[in-house]
Design brief:
single chain; about 250 residues; alpha/beta; Rossmann fold; seven-stranded parallel sheet; 8 helices; binds nicotinamide-adenine-dinucleotide
């Protein structure tokens, strides 16, 4: 599917900013939103992002989401390019191994900065135009690690728990003013991040497959379909919720 093959038209008129949009789930969300008529503004530190955005008739910016002032600068540029903002998807994240005993300080700070402080900074920068929109939505990519621990991953687990808290706080603080905020918690989804996790933890691969009841890992396009719904006005009564998309893995815990 390309950005111009419409699946539905429910996102026509919606201008949506997506962080971490050069790869995996973020790239699939960008493609899906464009296919439903949305106008996408893509942010990633990967230099391929402007070209990818152009292929979807969108705009792309090479940005480190955790850099000081980056969100304000990028949002100002996006407002100038698109004229407003109706949605934000916080997708950029990283994962580093380490338990409470051996996670090094630099890795802890880096994961916190990208996975938790940056989503808050991008929400803060995007809120003024989202409040002006009248019918806006934020989607934060959390994880099954927002509700239980993954072994040897204390920084990632802590940030995903925290991002779920940010999601609920934004939902209650801004829901009455026309900005909804929801979380998507994927299980194991076939993306470069997941492949890297399995490469670093090969002993976990068969266990992860056994933990879901679909007989396969998930696909980024399946997460994107849920995200498109949450950004659309069809989800107008959905606020502060966490949506699992994990092949049933959590149902068994
Ligand atoms: N893949 C999974 O199994 C899985 C499971 C649960 C949650 N998630 C979540 O879904 C989201 C997307 O994950 P994915 O698997 O597609 O990952 P991915 O690694 O394929 O893509 C992440 C993207 O974020 C970008 N990024 C990372 N740090 C950045 C920074 N500082 N500034 C700008 N861009 C940055 C990367 O360049 C990359 O394009 C993440 O929030 C992740 O935690 C993924």
């Amino acid at each position: 599917m390309t950005g111009t093959d419409r699946t539905t038209t429910r996102l026509i008129g919606k201008r949506v900013l997506i962080t971490g949009a050069a790869s995996g789930i973020g790239a699939a969300i960008a493609r899906r939103l464009a296919s439903e008529g949305g106008r996408v503004a893509l942010v990633d530190r990967d230099p391929v992002v402007p070209e990818y955005a152009a292929s979807l008739d969108g705009v792309g910016y090479v940005v480190d989401v955790a850099a000081r002032g980056a969100a304000e600068t990028a949002v100002a540029q996006i407002l100038s390019d698109l004229g407003g903002l109706d949605g934000l998807v916080n997708c950029a994240a990283i994962q580093r191994n380490g338990s409470a005993l051996d996670v090094d300080d630099a890795a802890w700070e880096e994961v916190l900065a990208i996975n938790l402080s940056a989503p808050l900074a991008w929400i803060r920068a995007a809120l003024p135009p989202l409040l002006d929109s009248g019918a806006a939505a934020i989607v934060n990519l959390t994880s099954v690690a927002a509700r239980h621990a993954l072994p040897n991953n204390v920084s990632y687990v802590a940030t995903k728990h925290g991002l779920l808290g940010v999601t609920r706080s934004v939902a209650v603080d801004f829901g009455r003013r026309g900005v909804r905020c929801n979380a998507i918690s994927p299980g194991s989804i076939n993306t470069p991040m997941f492949a890297e996790y399995v490469r670093r933890n090969p002993e976990k691969a068969s266990g992860l497959m056994d933990q879901n009841f679909a007989g396969r890992f998930g696909e980024a396009d399946e997460v994107a379909a849920l995200c498109a719904y949450l950004l659309s006005d069809e989800a107008g009564f959905t606020n502060g919720a966490e949506f699992l998309i994990d092949g049933g893995r959590t149902a068994a815990t």
